[in-house]
Every structure is written in C-alpha cells, then in structure tokens.
C-alpha cells in the first residue's frame, strides 16, 4: 500500500460497510417480499386461483417478453401500459359499476356526488384492507370483487389473444396479434397480473402503506406518497447538497495543487512495444463491437417507430415476425453486449502491456476461444429470444434457452450461464498477465486497483444467476439490479477509471502517483453511493421503508463524484497539445470528454430528476426514465466503449490516420442526435406524462387514450430527426473503424519513431 495506505483503507472500509448494508438489507427483501397466497377464494367459498396459477402466469408473462411488453410495478417498456396500474384501475372501475348497479340501479358515473363519495369510501376500505390469512395462506375476497376480477381478467384474455374488437388497442400497445396463443396460459397470465395489482392495493400488515409503498398513483383508493416517502425525498436533496459541498471543499483545500506535471515523452511509449499475437487478434472484437452497435441503432429505430404505428413499419406489417417486444429485447441486449465486448477488448489489449510487452503462454488461443464463445452467446441468445416470443419452444424451455422476461437480462438462462463462463475466461486471461506484474518490484498500487476491478467485472455478473424462473418478482428485482446497476454502473465505472489512468500513466501524460491517488479516490466516491444506492431502483418493488430510506440516502451521493469528472476529462483533453504524437489520440480523448458531459447530464441531472422517492413515485415507468436510460447508457458507457474501441484500433493499426471529416461527422452527429432525441421527443412526452400521473393516475399516463393523442403522435414522429442524425454519426464511425481501419483501406501515416 505504501503512501496510499490511507486511501486503500478508506476504499476497503467503504466496500465493507456498503456491501454489508446491501447484503443485510437483501435479507429484509427476502423476508418482506409481498406474499403469494396459496389460494384465493370468495366469501361464498368459490376458489378463484391458486399460487401455482399465479406462478404459471408469471412464466407466461416472461415468455411473451415480460418487461419488454409493458411493465410491472413501473419496470419495463413504456408503450403498452404498466399492467399492475392498468389492471388495478380497471378492477376498481368494475367494482364501482357493479356496486352502483346493485345499490342504485344505474352506472357509477351517473350517480350524484354524495353517492359516488360513499361508494368510493367503501371501495378504498375493501381494497386496502389485508384479507390474507397468513397461517393458511388463503386470501378471501368479496363476491363483488370476484366479479370485478372476472370482468378484468376477460379483458386481458381477449387482449393477449386475437379478439378483433381489441385489435386497435393492441396496435396502440404495439402488441402483435395472438400475443399468447394458449387460452389456459392467458388465464394464468391474468391471475399473475391480478396478484401484482393486489400487492399494489393492499396494505402491508402493521403499516398504512401497500406492499409497493402505495405505488402506483391511484386516487380511487388513496394511493399517494407516504409520509416516509416525502421525508426521505427531502433528506435526499439535503444529502446531495452536503455531498457536493464536501467534495468541492475537499477538491479546493485538500488536493495537492503543487504536483509537478509529468515530462512528456518524445514519442508514444506504447508504440515502442511490439504488438503481440493476442493484440493483433483483437481486430475481430472491434468488428463485433461496431456490428452490434449498428444493429442496436437500426433495431432501436424500428422499436421507436412501433410507438407510432404499433404493428407496422411504414405500412408493412412486421409485428408477426418481429414484434415490438422482440425488437426492444434485441435493442437492449445488443447494447449490453457491444459495450461489454469493447471493455473486454480494452482489457485484453492491456494484458500484454502489463506483462512487460509479451503474451502469456497460449494467450492468443484464449483470446480466439473467448471471441467465438461470445459469438455463440450472441447468436444463441438472439435466436432463443425469437423462438420464445414466437412460441416455438416447449413451455418448459422458454426461460432456459428463450427469454427470461427481465429487462437487460432477457437472454435465456443457458446463454446467461455461457456469458458468465466467458467473463470468467476473460478474467483468467487478464490475471495470467496481471499476477506476475503484481509480484514485480515498484509501485503496483494502480495495477492492483485495475486487477480488483477486473475480478469484479468477471464475477459480479454471476449475481444475475441467484434467482429462478419462479422466484418472487421482488427477489428477482433485487438480484437484477445487482447486474444492471452495481455491475454496469459501479464496477464498470471503476474499471474504466483505473484502465484510463493506467493508459495515461503508461503514456507519460500523468504521473503514476497522481493517477493512482485519483483512481483510488474516484473508486471510493463511486462505491460509497453506488453500492447501497442500488436500492433506489426498488422503492416500489415490494420492499419496505428501510430499503427506501437506504436507497434515497445513498443514491443522492452517486451524483457527487460526477461534479469533478468534467474537470478531469478536460485536463486529459488539454494534454493533446503536449506532444505531436498526441494528435493520434484526439478522438479517443474526445469520447472520454463526451463521457464526462453525459455523466453530468444523463447520469447526474436526468438521474437525479427521477431519483428522489417522491419524484419517482410519479415518474417511474414514464418516458422520463427513457431519458435517463439513453443519456446514461449510451452517453456514458457507449462513449466509453467507443473511446476504448478507437484507442485499441489506434495501436493495433499503428500506421492508420483517422479520417478527420468522418470522425467529426461521427462524433458530433452522435452527440447531436442524442440531444435531439431527448429534448424534442422523450423529455417532452415524459413531462406531459408526469402531469397526467400526478393529476389523474399512473394508469392514465400510460394509457392509449393519453399517449395516442395527436400531440404525442407528432412528438414521436419528431424523434425521427434525432434518430437520423444519430444514425449518420454511427455509420460514419463504423466506416472509419471497419472499412478504413480494420480492412486497411484508408490513408495511412508514415512510421513514427519508437520511444527510446
């Protein structure tokens, strides 16, 4: 540890405390997950459904795309409704109509104010009261509610089938005809959707909040933010301000401002290291990165277009072969895969550099095996997704080789295990180079941090294997966010920080001492908020108030380190003038500057916009979430991946000069397209939805009646301009990397002198 002992112990303490909080709170998540009744019966003794029916319905929901077709408790796609909110509202309206007809002989909307108020008061009492007998596991509902359930279930059985009367609604929801062909499975799906709505309406024993902390907003039964929700939202803002203040104070007064700049080498130090066989083999990784990147963009364009036409692409009906749920699955899955592949390629490029410029024995063979394993996972998982959604797989195979139904973890479990095995192989290839280097003399602190983040990338993806096909959706959400938030947003961030610092230190652009200290401090800042901050995704997923409190308090601190990232990125960008050979790194550095900007805007501003419990209560599952997702996933991790891709390309094709015109078009079009996409379409729609969610309810903000208004149709068409600009940038970048770079078709530089 040496001179960094205090920084290391700070990081170790933070990791110990934060993972203890995450783990102990996870025990609470398991214990307090909303119960699934053993059976549901009426007061007259009729059995409506069983636990097995509900779990079979969950499996049926997963098989049609799950979170890629509408959402549950706010998590999932945004075109179809949130099924929990939609079911709940439809059932409440059915109960009121039944009560009005039975007691007053006319529809509810024709009653006077006093009559409506009386029935609504009784409705709230019946629905919020917990009638589950915990000893027997039996849930009892009134005969009137049973009839309301039956009527609501019939709607969903017709919607997920091919009933001609509901075809216009299916088109509005971007659902294909006969989404779930088996009528028995449609009935089970309705049972599952009822249970998710029951948990959202029924008070948890000993509290005055439902199992989902009163989400979704539903005025008919008094689903509004709890007192704790408001209090922890205020605490969230206070902690953010305090955290930023402390960071700025520390940056101004505790940082060593007298550190002398490192002398710049006359030539690129990495050019003095001969390319190894494993590094030369990385070109095919870069090709896959770009191929998946382009595929993701075009399939994303189709997904966005489905929000306008629903089942067609400019009049051509594609929905029976490539429905919205499949297009969105591939769009998200390809994003994760191309970004991860770029990170893997960057690590494999650094491995021989770390090992003194030589490959460990059989390193190239391992690199080649890993590549074809990744190709197999991509092809197999995509094919499995298609077969599952087309219902061409046996029922019991869908989860395992088809579609898990969970956003970002859609690939079948077999392919998920294969991808984890591939990451473990990558980890082994990295450690073969790192461990001997760690044993060498000298300052190895930065390398140790890079090594630890590499181990974490290899192993933490395995947390997504800790739930099963029939796990409680609350338990599944806990582990899913270990992958989506902790693995991607936390560990990848630390790896990127350490890897970039290692590269810059190796290039002599920053002293190893500064690079090491900055990386350790950054890792501590990322982890202190990032690890327990995982819970800010679980406010309304069937968890308790303590989980909300932890998520709100710590996730506010996630924004804090983003304040200084822009300064660090600009310092790196400013170093491009230090030596003539630095001009070759201009565009990778530009990508890293873009990362800092989008970290501030996408992860910081747009992330905090939906972060506090009271804000997310009304915003969860709206297009405001898509704003944060696009700005943070592509803006941060996408540009990081592209920066790594260009950096690796620069060294495996050392005599290549990047085409300035192509790179300017590519870089600025990607940024401009993302800005247009957000500010001309996604954000305005999300803000209008927010108003509808507050004033009327979540069911309305996600309904066809609201989203199919001419204004929103126009705003979705307007998004096309941003999409086209973005596509132009992507094609320009792809042409540079693949055609002019990997295929050696472009203008080439004269050989530069190697470093002495």
From TrEMBL:
The protein here is known as Nitric oxide reductase large subunit-like protein
For molecular function, the Gene Ontology terms on record are: cytochrome-c oxidase activity; heme binding
**What biological-process terms (Gene Ontology) are attached?**
aerobic respiration
Residues passing through the membrane, by range:
7-27, 230-254, 285-308, 335-357, 369-393, 413-434, 446-467, 487-510, 517-535, 547-566, 587-610, 630-649, 670-690, 724-743
Q: Which organism is it from?
A: Rhizorhabdus wittichii (strain DSM 6014 / CCUG 31198 / JCM 15750 / NBRC 105917 / EY 4224 / RW1)
Which Pfam families would you find in this protein's record? COX1, NorB_cytochrome_c-like
Q: Which UniProt keywords apply?
A: Membrane, Transmembrane, Transmembrane helix
Write down any Gene Ontology CC term: membrane
Q: Which domain of life is it from?
A: Bacteria
Residues covered by the Nitric oxide reductase subunit B cytochrome c-like domain: 37-217
- InterPro entries in the cross-refs: Cyt_c_oxase-like_su1_sf, Cyt_C_Oxase_1, NorB_cytochrome_c-like
């Amino acid at each position: 540890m040496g001179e960094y002992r205090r920084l290391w112990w700070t990081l170790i303490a933070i990791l110990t405390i934060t993972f203890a909080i995450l783990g102990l709170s996870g025990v609470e998540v398991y214990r307090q997950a909303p119960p699934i009744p053993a059976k549901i019966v009426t007061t007259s003794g009729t059995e409506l459904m069983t636990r097995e029916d509900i779990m079979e319905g969950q499996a049926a929901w997963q098989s049609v795309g799950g979170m890629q077709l509408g959402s549950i408790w706010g998590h999932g796609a945004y075109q179809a409704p949130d099924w929990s909110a939609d079911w709940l509202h439809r059932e409440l309206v059915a109960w009121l109509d039944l009560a009005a007809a039975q007691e007053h002989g006319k529809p509810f909307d024709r009653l006077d104010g006093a009559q409506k108020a009386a029935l609504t008061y009784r409705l709230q009492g019946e629905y919020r009261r917990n009638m589950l007998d915990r000893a027997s596991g039996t849930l009892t509902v009134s005969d009137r509610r049973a009839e309301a359930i039956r009527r609501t279930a019939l709607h969903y059985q017709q919607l997920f089938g091919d009933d001609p009367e509901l075809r216009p609604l299916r088109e509005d929801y971007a659902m294909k005809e006969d989404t779930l062909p088996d009528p028995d499975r449609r009935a089970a799906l309705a049972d599952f959707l009822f249970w998710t709505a029951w948990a959202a309406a029924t008070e948890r024993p000993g509290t005055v909040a439902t199992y989902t902390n009163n989400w979704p907003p539903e005025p008919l039964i008094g689903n509004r933010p709890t007192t704790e929700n408001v209090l922890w939202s205020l605490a969230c803002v206070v902690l953010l301000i305090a955290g930023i203040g402390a960071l700025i104070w520390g940056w101004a007064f505790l940082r060593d401002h007298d550190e002398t700049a490192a002398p710049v080498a006359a030539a690129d130090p990495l050019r003095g290291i001969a390319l190894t066989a494993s590094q030369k083999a990385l070109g095919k990784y870069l090709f896959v990165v770009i191929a998946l990147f382009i595929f993701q963009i075009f399939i994303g364009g189709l997904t966005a277009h489905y929000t306008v036409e629903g089942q067609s692409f400019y009049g051509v009906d594609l929905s029976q072969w490539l429905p919205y749920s499949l297009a969105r699955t591939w769009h998200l899955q390809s994003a994760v895969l191309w970004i991860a592949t770029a990170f893997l390629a960057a690590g494999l490029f650094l491995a021989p550099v770390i090992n003194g410029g030589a490959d460990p024995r059989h390193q190239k063979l391992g690199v080649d095996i890993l590549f074809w394993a990744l190709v197999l996972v991509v092809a197999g998982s995509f094919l499995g997704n298609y077969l599952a959604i087309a219902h061409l797989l046996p029922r019991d195979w869908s989860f395992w080789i088809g579609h898990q139904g969970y956003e970002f973890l859609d690939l079948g479990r077999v392919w998920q295990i294969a991808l984890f095995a591939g990451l473990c192989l990558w980890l082994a290839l990295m450690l073969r180079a790192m461990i001997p280097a760690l044993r060498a003399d000298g300052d190895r602190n930065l390398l140790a941090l890079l090594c630890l983040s590499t181990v974490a990338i290899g192993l933490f993806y395995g947390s997504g294997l800790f739930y099963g096909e029939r796990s409680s959706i609350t338990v599944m959400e806990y582990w899913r966010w270990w992958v989506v938030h902790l693995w991607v947003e936390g560990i990848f961030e630390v790896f990127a920080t350490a890897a970039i610092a290692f590269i810059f230190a190796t290039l002599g652009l920053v002293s190893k001492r500064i690079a090491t200290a900055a990386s350790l401090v950054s890792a501590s800042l990322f982890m202190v908020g990032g690890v327990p901050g995982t819970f800010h995704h679980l406010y309304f997923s069937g968890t308790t108030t303590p989980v909300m409190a932890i998520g709100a308090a710590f996730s506010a601190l996630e924004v804090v380190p983003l304040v200084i990232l822009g300064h660090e990125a600009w310092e790196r960008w400013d170093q491009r003038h230090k030596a003539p050979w630095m001009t070759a790194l201009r565009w990778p550095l530009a990508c890293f500057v873009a990362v800092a900007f989008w970290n501030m805007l996408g992860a910081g501003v747009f992330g905090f916009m939906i972060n506090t419990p009271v804000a997310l209560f009304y915003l969860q599952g709206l297009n405001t979430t898509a704003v944060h997702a696009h700005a943070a996933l592509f803006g941060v991790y996408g540009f990081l991946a592209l920066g790594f891709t260009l950096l690796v390309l620069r060294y495996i094709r050392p005599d290549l000069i990047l085409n300035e015109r192509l790179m300017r078009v590519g870089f600025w079009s990607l940024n401009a397209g993302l800005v247009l996409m957000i500010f001309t379409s996604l954000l305005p729609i999300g803000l209008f939805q927010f108003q509808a969610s507050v004033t009327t309810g979540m069911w309305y903000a996600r309904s066809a009646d609201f989203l199919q208004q001419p204004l929103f149709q126009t705003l979705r068409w307007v998004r096309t301009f941003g999409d086209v600009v973005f596509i132009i940038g992507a094609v320009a970048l792809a042409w540079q990397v693949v055609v002019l770079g990997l295929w050696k078709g472009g203008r080439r530089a004269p050989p530069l002198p190697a470093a002495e």
